[in-house]
Specification:
2 copies of one chain form a homodimer. Chain A has 312 residues and is an alpha/beta fold. Chain A is built from 11 helices and 15 strands. In chain A, strands 1, 5, 6, 7, 10, 11, 12, 13, 14 and 15 form a 10-stranded mixed beta sheet that branches.
């Protein structure tokens, strides 16, 4: 089977939405990417770091999903990265209440030997220098994908630009794309980002879907209209996991197939937001994904002749 | 040819966007709906009212586009409806600077005899009692479509609910749908609106596209990603004109064909916003629309087998 290498946080989150509030629960970019990509027939591994306060049950959940966790370093006496946030009423924006870097502050990632030849590498949200260090360790993969956040634009822009220059695909949300480029139009923004390096630019618009840009081509996948979004945490990472998981499985990195990967990313993300944290992703079947794929098809596919039919 | 009857404002607009400012220019819901629907092989007519301050050149523009204007009453000594507004920097919201109802205040619409048997009736934004009066005059059309605004929810809700109960399709923007139903989820919101009467609910999300709801079916058309949106004025009405113009032309009001109508509505609206006011719609060719239809196809159409291809 093809191999997907995932780098990113494995963490504790405490989340508050209009629908409720959680204590410290399992979170982190690599966690969501791992759970999401595990829906595909691939070998996937996470490179990350936690403290010895991190419960075995969380690690064994990842293992049970078939994820290789050799690359998750457990720091003795260390504390796991912790984030807490509160979503506003429309769930489109949130305030960070607390961030404790803890063991992340001195993280030196080590890629497991079996994954040095990974087919696809997904660099989830982390310090750009950690992402760079992973790129330096691996052999040449078929595709490298980067996700990042405004936090690094504010605090480590030079390092971030270095890693952006080295990857094939970047996934970034709309506001971050605007911040990075100073362009309001997402079309102009994507063009500017492509000039920084990535051949493919994915702009995530949350409940408004995702855009894939490549040269002069554009593809758009909507988010599925849902009765209720309970918790958007991890939706972007789940999208990235679906996107890279699908590409890793079928090893076709053409633009046509990348469209499909964007649909799978949106498909998986539409489940993630239905419950708090990772709950929905822990209990998700392939049949549910297939059935939702049909919903995405009826939502978006149409059949128009180029010239409208004649008047009756 | 099939007939489309349009009711709505024919007006003066003064518009300010981050890109510039206009004096009093041609505007109004029925104007945009008329220009947009004129792109199809149909007979269309506008029912509206203006003052004798309304320039002949505006009326002859409508006539030149093939629009029947018998139903546009010209009130001697009256002043034409005037609206002025200023868009915020993101162009997603605007402040109304001034509204002068003028001749609209006492408007009693009279449907031209030749359009009493219109195939489709498009009730553009106007007082709901005016919209109701038009419905009472006409014979049973194949389809009635209503557009409205939050202004009438605030000021004439009972009358608005009466007209909503009588139409087949409603087009409404996302914030207005939320205001009308008290539901944040657009899916829940559409269901509540459908219970008020319309079998089809179209929710317009501006730059984020449009959703069509019918029973348990949903279809989504994105807005085309543009380099720059110069002026969103009239985009919703242009959408409605494309939607009803297409349906009138091919007389197929199935859900499948209504999907196509939503695509044509989005197609035409994507031109409207490229220049100030009606300018782009006055000079738009069928070839440009056909070519943009191809863009909509490549933007949204994909080809996934139900089961992802096997791992290599």
């Amino acid at each position: 089977m093809s191999k997907l290498l995932i780098v990113g946080t494995v963490a504790f989150d405490a989340i508050e939405t209009p629908f409720g509030k959680t204590d410290k629960i399992l979170g982190g970019a690599a966690t969501y990417i791992g759970l999401s990509s595990s829906q595909f027939n691939i070998d996937n591994a996470i490179v990350s770091v936690v403290g010895d306060d991190f419960p075995d049950e969380h690690l064994s959940l990842l293992t049970k999903k078939g994820i290789n966790i050799e690359g998750i370093e457990i720091v003795k006496g260390g504390k796991t990265f912790f984030w807490s946030g509160k979503y506003h009423n429309d769930l489109n924006s949130r305030d960070t209440l607390e961030t404790q870097l803890n063991v992340l502050a001195d993280f030196n990632p080590v890629v497991p030997k079996d994954y040095l030849d990974a087919d696809i590498v997904m660099l989830g949200n982390l310090h750009p220098l950690v992402q760079l260090s992973v790129l330096e360790q691996i052999k040449k993969p078929k595709l490298t994908v980067l996700d990042t956040m405004n936090f690094w634009m504010d605090n480590a822009l030079d390092d971030l630009l270095k890693v952006i220059a080295k990857v094939d695909v970047i996934t970034i949300n709309d506001e971050e794309a605007r911040q990075l480029t100073g362009e309001h139009s997402l079309l102009k923004s994507a063009r500017k980002i492509a000039k920084m390096g990535p051949k493919y630019v994915v702009i995530k618009k949350g409940e408004h879907g995702a855009l894939l840009f490549h040269k002069d081509q554009i593809f758009f996948a909507p988010a599925l209209p849902l009765e209720e979004v309970f918790d958007p945490t991890g939706a972007g990472d789940t999208f990235a996991g679906g996107f890279t998981g699908y590409l890793t499985q079928n090893q076709d990195i053409s633009f046509e197939n990348m469209k499909n990967a964007v649909i799978y990313g949106s498909n998986l993300a539409s489940f993630c937001v239905e419950k708090f944290g990772t709950e929905r992703m822990e209990n998700l079947s392939k049949d549910e994904i297939d059935s939702r794929l049909q919903e995405f098809k009826s939502l978006t596919q149409f059949d128009i002749e180029l010239r409208p039919t004649k008047a009756l």
